[in-house]
Fold this sequence. Notes:
Elements: E1 2-6, H1 13-22, E2 27-31, E3 34-39, H2 43-62, E4 67-71, E5 75-78, E6 81-83, E7 87-91, E8 103-104, E9 109-113, H3 119-123, H4 125-131, E10 138-142, E11 149-154, E12 161-166, E13 172-175, E14 180-183, H5 184-187
Parallel strand pairs: 5-8, 9-10
Antiparallel strand pairs: 1-3, 2-3, 2-6, 4-7, 5-6, 7-9, 10-11, 11-12, 13-14
Amino acid sequence: MTAQPKEKTSMTQAEYLAMERCAIDTKHEYFNGEIFAMVGAKRNHVYINSNLIIALGGKLRESNSPCRPVANDMRVKIEAGYVYPDVVILCGEGEFEDDEFDTLTNPVVIIEILSDSTAAFDRGEKFNYYQGIATLKEYILVSQDRYRIEQYTRQEKKDTWEYRSLNDLNQNLTIKSTDCEVPLSEIYWGVEFASDG
C-alpha cells in the first residue's frame, strides 16, 4: 500500500491506537506523532503480495516450519510508532504489544513491495526503523515494475546487514532465517510490466 500525506500532527501513540482500532475503511501508519493514511495498491502490488503469501505459506507448511507469513493487515510496532508491512513472517508464537493481539512486536522477516511513492522511504528511513526491532533477521524489498528483489540479512554483529540483489526469474529468494526458498517465478507469477513504448 501507499502512504499518503500526514493527516494530523502531535498525536500520541495511545491516541493513534484508539483511533486505528475504531477505523473501518482506512489504515494508518504512525511515525513520531504523525499519521499517514494507507491507500489502495495497484494490480502488480496486489498480485505480488498474494503470490508471496501463497508461496511462503505453502513452503513453510510443507517443511513443518514454526514460521508463518502474515499479510498486510497485521500492524507491527517500531520504536517511532506503528506500520503495516506488506508481508511479515513470524516464527513460533507471536508476541503482541497488548491484549488486543493486533500489534506484533516480534517479526523475523519483513517484506515491502516497492511503489514509486514509497521506494525511497522503504529503503531509507523505514529500514532504519526496522533495524531497531531486535527479532528482525531479514528485510526484503520487492519491485513491482521489474524483476528485482533486494534482500538485507542481519549478520551476527547486530548492526551489520548483508545485501543481496536478485533480478532473474531463474533465481531463488533464499530466506535463511526461515529455511525457505522461493523462486522468483512464483513471486512474479501473473505479473505484467508496463511497456516503455
